[in-house]
Amino acid sequence: MQLVPEPGRVASGAVRFDGEDVLTLGKSKLRDFRAHSVGMIYQNPFGSLNPTMRVGAQIAETLKVNRGLKRDAAKKEAVALLDRVGIEDPERRYRAYPHELSGGMAQRVMIAIATASSPRLMLADEPTTALDVTTQAQILKLLGQMRAEEGMAMLLVSHDFGVIAQACDRVAVMYGGHIVETGPVETIYHNPEHPYTRALLNSVPELDSAGNVQRRAALAGHPPELSDVIPGCVFAPRCEFAREGCETVSMKLEQVGPDHHSACPVRPFASAAAGGGETAGAAPRTGTAPERTEA
Fold first, then answer.
1. Where do runs of H (alpha helix) occur along 17-160?
2. Do the bridges between strand 121-125 and strand 153-157 make them parallel or antiparallel, or are there none, so unpaired?
3. Three-class SS of residue 175?
4. Cβ(111)–Cβ(58) under 8 Å?
5. DSSP codes, 180-233
6. Spatial separation of the C-alpha atoms in residues 270 and 278, rounded to whole Å
7. Residue 116 in contact with residue 66, Cβ under 8 Å?
8. Mean pLDDT by 10 residues, the chain (295 residues)
């Protein structure tokens, strides 16, 4: 989206959409990309909506600029969008200001704006974080319906495992600015290969944990400062399976199963996954980088 403000910059890599690197698009192509190819739902709808404009006018403005609709047609379409995203009495809500809406209604308005130009890709940055559980489920259901109706792809950013399981087909787990594991949601949840992914899943309370005084496992240490350059594996300082050589490995993803990739060369859970036994730790090696183990 090229939204990183100065003096920040993307130092390396590429963001490809339809074969083009978005990071190199000129102003005209970038404007067209933002207007028609991609939509964005932000974490805080009240921080994204203009508090001085009625919500209907904000939707209509998007329709006039991106789709070239005239005023009356834009208003009619904006009311239809409000109705489509599940807002009751859309004619009246069209004239409401953001502060007159609940959190769930404001997020529905953001979804209406983001989908007004029928984008092919939706970027959803923790769209349910500030919502109660019931409203969260409604928003996820709405996004799922719109994905199916529009044939739209969605990139969802979330720290909530329940949200990911409900809304996603694939998941990429990140730590310290790196993707450490990626694969189908079911594979990652049932057979995580990276120690960080395993630790995250082990920290989730179970439904039958009421009255259980045993605390869930917690990671030692603290997440790294993203400004620090950590040699080798960024998770090694907190990893119980770290050994000599981890400080020299790359963070390159390697295939560990069908459509399943991990950045951990130790693979401490590989033997358990292959033989169905208990998780086994890796024996330390000295002097050289850990070799990747084949299951």
1. 27-32, 45-48, 55-67, 71-84, 90-93, 103-114, 133-150
2. parallel
3. strand
4. no
5. EEEEEHHHHHHS--SHHHHHHHHTSPPTT-TT--PPPP--SS-PPPTTS---S-
6. 10
7. yes
8. 84 88 91 91 91 96 93 95 93 96 92 92 88 87 88 92 90 94 95 93 76 74 84 92 89 93 88 48 40 41
Q: Which residue has the tokens 């932000």?
A: 42
Q: Which amino acid is at 68?
A: G
* Domain 16-168 fold: Rossmann fold (3.40.50)
N- to C-terminal Cα distance for the chain?
39
**Residue 147 and residue 239: Cα distance in Å, rounded?**
38
Task: Using alpha carbons, list the distances in angstroms from residue 270 to 187, 192, 241, 251, 275.
Answer: 13, 10, 13, 18, 9
**Domain spans, the chain:** 16-168, 172-206+218-275
